[in-house]
Amino acid sequence: MIHGPCGNLNRLSPYMKDGKCIKQYPRALIHDTLTADDGYPQYRRRMPGLGEHFAIIQHGGTEIEIDNRWIVPYCPLPSKIFNTHLNVKYCHSIKSIKYICKYIHKGSDQAAFVIENSRDEVTIFQTGRYISSNEAVWRILGLPVHQRHPSVTHLSVHLENGQRVYFNEENIKQRAQEPPRTTLTEFFKACQNDEFAQTLLYYQMPTYYTWTAQKKWQSRKQGKVVENWPHICASDVLGRVYTVYPTNLECLHLRILLHKVTGPTLFQQLRTVDGIVCSTFKEACLNRGLLEDDRQWRNTLQEASVSDSPSQLRNLFAIILISCNPSDPKQLWLDHRESMSDDVCRQLNQLQPQISLDFTAEIFNKALTLLEGKVINISGKRLEQHGFTSPCRDLDLLPQTELLQETNYVMAKLDRIVSSTEPNLTFDQDSVYGKILKAVDDELEAIFFLDAPGGTSKTFLLNLLLAKIRSNRQVALAVTSLLEGGRTSHSMFKLPLDMGHLKTPVCNIRKGTGLAQLLQTTKLIVWDECTMAHKATMEALNRTLKDLYNSDKLMGGVCVLLAGDFRQILLVIPRGTPADELKACLKNSYLWHRVEVCKLTTNMRVHMRGDDALGEFSAQLLNIGEGKLPVNNGLICLPDNCRFIVDTEDNLLQKVYPNIHENYLQHQWLKERVILAPKNDTVDHINQLLLEKSPGTTTSFLSIDCVVEENDSVNYPAEFLNSLQPASMRPHNLQLCVGAPVMLL
């Protein structure tokens, strides 16, 4: 399984093209297998001194030394069984899977041949199919050529008396009196007579029933018996309702209801919501909350206008505009603009008491200007970028908003924080504090990393540094939500979302904008919990600051303080291996060798309380994080004094949440306990079990999923979108009950 050789060893190799090997040999030497951006793996090829092997081969009468860079990936066992060369590829993404599927679906081998007629000058070319001997034997023996599993039953969807009818002159009267039966009309009849069918949705019918030649639903005789229904058998047959184009609105909304209403017996029942018969299927979908509209945002603003100030209303409207994507933001503004402009109107009346001013276009424009300022502070975008109309204003003032936000601090308060906090610093905190301030004062190009395990008062020190810089009327940016005036890294630096797939990523910050002006005046950037950030984020910030400052200095000459703990969780690479996570870690960045590491070692909880048991527990946590504890079969061996193991989920829930049906309304009791899990599926499962144990009535809230392009609605129906659950998104069916704690992000 040795390639070539080619390249510099053999320029005449058939694999050479434009002076390079088309198979990309020799490959790079790497210590661990990594997943490349195109979905194909970069296999481990050990380096010298770490298990690398060499071989001497004869090529062209000369001896050539071959190492791991020339080995084609293979598996020894299949190569020996089949006595042939087998190139093995690990399929990681759809980009590599399609390579295999291409050969499965392209059909038999084809050949082009020519039939020449000596009596005719015209040459006829035809495409013929060549069947090899092994394929001919396969067909002669009658073996299956293809297979499809599971089988899919298509289900019709139509409005009442809207099924397709085929007729001629002889049967036109009979067809008019007895329209043909369809899978939908027979589904209604089955729900009228069959108790089990009343528990099903339309698309679930083929799993338990078969559509006969007599056009009736009949219970399946084979399959797995359904629990508590001994006469019902379940198969693996899938039901798929035909898609409906959005222009056929009523039929489209009927299709949506068929995926939400169980056991309907009539079309009218589908249009019935809470005992009220709606006039259209669209109205029924709206009343069930299955369609997107601005009713909830309209009710939210209406309720808030009773008790909140106009400034708070503008804040709320800005959040709705940015985060909730209302379908008609202009109408929302028109409906509530007087409530949001009331303070502006009062201010003008106080300036001109002799004139009673009513709401005018100028007042609304002033309120709209204040609203846009809030939107810019939150998202960094103007109103027109959120599908709204920007007010008439002096555009030169816009870039100053970011700078004003970071300099609008009360200096007296900052001075009090600095004077009261500096004397409380420990020795290692004071050492780091002085080193950072000196670097800022001397304008050194430096990157510091504060290695701070839990309990060493890292946040205390970072807030003091920010207060000290800001008290000197200088700009210090906090990149975390836990620090004073902090924002997330993506909000602060406009980092691209596909960071790991870009070769040279840069921040989405244009010169001349408010954020660019802010960064050009910054003296210190404090980036907390950076250990969970991709290494490309720091590299992107470095490129951006160099461009904004027009300088080749590190970070453009801005002092950057990174903080975190590599003993805790690293960044998450979707579908990645541990090697992929290590590759994307900050320590693998080309900038890391220029980072100066500072450490905090004093555990403040132990230091303040003098508790030996607490100090022992802190030391055990550090030993776990540094990999010093023994490992048995992949499991960390914990000390006996800090280990408690439960054997079932029920015992876990009972241990952490005892008697939840009695205590679920006590907020303090809920705050004191939590169950952590590494996967979201496990978290959702535990949440569902705890909800079932709560005595409150569970209510379902359904999401509204839609496609961006209308033409894609046929390719991606609503029920398919409902089945998707991307990371950090709420489930389609969000179940809550009174007393259940909710975390708003």
Descriptive overview:
The protein is built from 29 helices and 25 strands. By secondary structure, the chain is α/β, with parallel strands linked by helices. The chain folds into six domains: 16-105, no CATH class; 152-287, no CATH class; 295-398, no CATH class; 406-602, Rossmann fold, CATH 3.40.50; 609-642, no CATH class; 649-736, no CATH class. 19% of the residues are buried.
| CA-atom Rg in angstroms | 34 Å
**Oligomeric form:** single chain
CATH architecture of the largest domain, please?
Answer: 3-Layer(aba) Sandwich
CATH superfamily of the largest domain: P-loop containing nucleotide triphosphate hydrolases
Q: What is this structure's SSE topology?
A:
Layout: E1 16-17, E2 20-21, E3 34-35, E4 41-42, E5 55-59, E6 62-66, H1 76-82, H2 94-105, E7 110-115, E8 124-129, H3 133-140, E9 152-155, H4 172-177, H5 183-193, H6 205-208, E10 209-211, E11 217-219, E12 224-226, E13 229-234, E14 238-241, H7 249-258, H8 267-270, E15 272-273, E16 276-277, H9 281-287, H10 295-307, H11 310-324, H12 329-340, H13 342-351, H14 361-379, H15 400-407, H16 411-421, H17 427-441, E17 447-451, H18 458-471, E18 475-479, H19 489-493, H20 514-520, E19 522-527, H21 535-549, E20 559-564, H22 578-583, E21 595-599, H23 604-609, H24 612-625, E22 631-632, E23 635-636, H25 649-656, H26 660-663, H27 667-671, H28 680-693, E24 699-702, H29 718-723, E25 733-736
Helix pairs in contact: 7-9, 10-11, 10-12, 11-12, 11-14, 15-20, 16-18
